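Q: What structure does this chain adopt?
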Amino acid sequence: MGIKAKRTLGNTITYIVLIIISIVWLFPFVCLFLQSLRSYNEGGGGMVEYLLPKQFSLDSYAFLFSQDSQFVRWYLNTLVIAAFVALGQTIIVLCVSYALSRMRFKGRTFLMRFWLILGMFPGFLTMICLYFLLKQFGLTQAGAIPGLILISIASSGMGYYVTKGYFDTIPKALDEAARIDGASRARVFLTMIIPMSKPIIIYAALVAFMAPWCDYIFASYVAFGYSDSYNVAVAMQRWVWTNDYQGYFTRFCAGGMLVAVPITILFICLQKYYVEGVTGGAVKG
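A:
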């Protein structure tokens, strides 16, 4: 077998494997979409009937925006939390990463190692302490939204690893030249480092946005039965806990499709910068 034939065979096998992986990966999303189009009153049946509805309907989507549902409020709650967390976390992570990358001060190495070890512990270990702390300030139940924003932003500085690695790839000679010309560290950071760090900024913002957008455990703990403060993950989980599982499951699927829209659009539009940010930040640590 010649080299060309071997290459063709190898490419064919690779494409077949990739197609199979794509089908396996997309299958749950296709099922979720088909179930969201199932009529509310349509019962179950065999496997084929269950996967492919007998009649397609937009009743579940209409219910989400009706007066009988608080889905719009829950969706806005989630969007507000995610937007503020993305903004706050990105600013803090950039500042902390720049300081650790460019400045040398006493205790710097110890601080980085301490944060690295501290970050190995799951965050939910502190849920009870955080809940009672937030409760003292009225940031639970009715005040759950600002409470969730505060908690998500407060510890964001420990996520400096990838961003610091990206800043380490930027030559320090640029900083030194600007400092010789009289520029302050703040000016160097804002006018030189930030414009050259677009990929890592987008990466940090996307990661910060996704965490509260998909949060369920801590969000349900802080809201604690106050429906007006639910995010979409907590609210839709309450739907599938109802006695009318068959009916609300289709609404759950419809809500899941709408929840996936912002993340999908962001990744499609910013995929190039996201990949550059990850690969650039992984060069040094």
